[in-house]
Amino acid sequence: MLDSLPLILSFLMAGVPPTVLATVGGIALTVVLSAVAGLALVSRHRAVRAVSRVYVEFFRGTSEVVQLFWIFFVLPALVGYQIIPLGAGILVLGLNHGAYGAEIVRGAVRAVPRAQHEGAVALSLSPWDRMRRVVLPQAVVEMLPPFTNLFIQLLKSTALLSLVVVDEVVRRGQLLVPNLGVGEKLTIYLVELVIYLVLALLITAGMRLLERRAAARVGRVPATGVAT
Amino acid sequence: MPAEPMIVFEGVHKRFGDSVVLSDLDLAVDPGEHVTLIGPSGSGKTTILRLLMCLERVDAGTIRVGGRYLSHMHRRGELVPADEKHSRDVRRRIGMVFQQFNLFPNMSVLGNLIEAPTRVLGLSRAEATERAAELLDMVGLAEKIDEHPARLSGGQQQRVAIARALAMRPDVLLLDEITSALDPELVAGVLRLLRRIGDTTDITILCVTHEIGFARDFSDRVLMLDGGRVIEDGPPDQLLREPRQPRTKEFLAAVLEGR
Ligand SMILES: Nc1ncnc2c1ncn2[C@@H]1O[C@H](COP(=O)(O)OP(=O)(O)O)[C@@H](O)[C@H]1O
Ligand SMILES: [Mg+2]
């Protein structure tokens, strides 16, 4: 069992780049969609809120796997060309987690005290500046911890991409499994657990850094310097 | 022709749900005048200031500021409720200081002072910073320019908030119980600052306060509100020393007893 470890390790490690790529791409899309849909959820315009609400409920309320099959198998048949598996995966991960992220953004924006909004009104700042310069920077502090959770969930969801033959960690493991004995299988799954754990810890560490910076900017902890 | 008053309320009604807060309120404040609003809690003092700040809308009646409608605007010859852009345009002449300061915690003191002048008035960063430094000097906080608001005392925060409002060069300043949230020993400094602003500028000031002593020497006129109306209107020496209305007398007695 132990002699096979280096081989298994190097075989599975080759799946890490696609997993990381899917995670990073998924997170990027999630951030954009969360921001857009989340701000739309607090819009003054009813129609804008409604559109965003439909998006959120749809992607939150349907299976991620089925969404993936739609984008990978059905959509190409409808529009006529095949989207690359990794692209389809990132799209689904982003759309799905963006729906959860939108609720996080909405909640955090609404949690900023009304007084802050009124202070900005009293200075005649435009609605957009009020949001961008006053409300959002304070809301971001509230958003970061739940987003850490969301990103870790997204990382783990990348395993689903094995279903559309993205060559990521889990799929590579599955390729090896059929020809091996129990000991090696155990090693494979153990290595997979560790890979996800390490990646999740990296996300957590990165987000902690952002959290600390954001908190310092709103004076939550002793800050050495402050942006103006 | 007499100059148009700076602030005019005509027949203003305001209710929240079933409770009528202002009923048929008429009010006029001249340019440069210092008017203090007094009255029991819930009598609508804050609501009057919030209407001027467009944080609330009138249910009936009109408000004019500097000769222009604030609550309404002309469209095709008709007077219709103002939209956000119109209100913002007229409101630009008004500054407000709140009981709880409402400084932006995501910006330094300087950031708080230059944000609106650069974005709304179109000042360059250098111009805005220079003005901010002058104002901080005036409120006695020059050395706090790069400090974080959360690290200032309540009195200091309130003085920054006053400077922030002045940075917009308002014609009208609204002050809503701005010393009520302060520790007693910090109140005097803020009131001294207000007196200086009153003496050295021609800003029209509408002020809600329970500091009767301050109201007496700061105001040109005091209005007593009760039940959604102005029930007494007079110079501070008369209204605060020999009120005509029994309600005013009762209210002043209660306030003075409270300290
Ligand atoms: N947004 C609101 N919704 C409902 N009721 C309100 C609101 N704002 C004020 N009120 C009510 O209106 C009345 C007048 O309030 P306010 O103007 O704050 O009085 P004051 O400042 O004189 O104490 C109070 O009874 C208060 O409860
Ligand atoms: Mg009040």
Residue ranges of chain B: pLDDT <50 for 5 or more in a row?
none
Please name the fourth-level CATH homologous superfamily of chain A: MetI-like
Give the SSE string of chain A: HHHHHHHHH
Strand order of the largest sheet of chain B: 8-9-10-3-11-12
Compute the number of structural domains of chain A: 1
Uncertain ranges of chain A: 222-228
Shape of chain B: globular
Our count of helices of chain A gives 9
Q: Percentage of helical residues of chain A?
A: over 70%
Describe the structure.
The complex is a heterodimer of chains A (228) and B (259). Chain A has 228 residues and is mostly helical. Chain A is 78% helix and 0% strand. In chain A, 34% of the residues are buried. Chain B has 259 residues and is α/β, with parallel strands linked by helices. Chain B contains nine helices and twelve strands. In chain B, strands 8-9-10-3-11-12 form a six-stranded mixed beta sheet, with helices on both faces. A four-stranded antiparallel beta sheet of chain B has the order 2-1-4-5, covered by helices on one side. A two-stranded antiparallel sheet of chain B has the order 6-7. In chain B, β4 and β5 (68-69) form a beta hairpin. Chain B starts with 6 loop residues before the first strand and ends with a helix. The A-B interface holds A 115-116, 118-127, 129, 133-134, 137-138, 217-220, 223, 226-228 and B 53-55, 84, 88, 91-92, 94-96, 98, 100, 102-108, 110-111, 114-116, 119-120, 146-151, 164-165, 168. Magnesium ion is lined by residues 45-46, 177 of chain B.
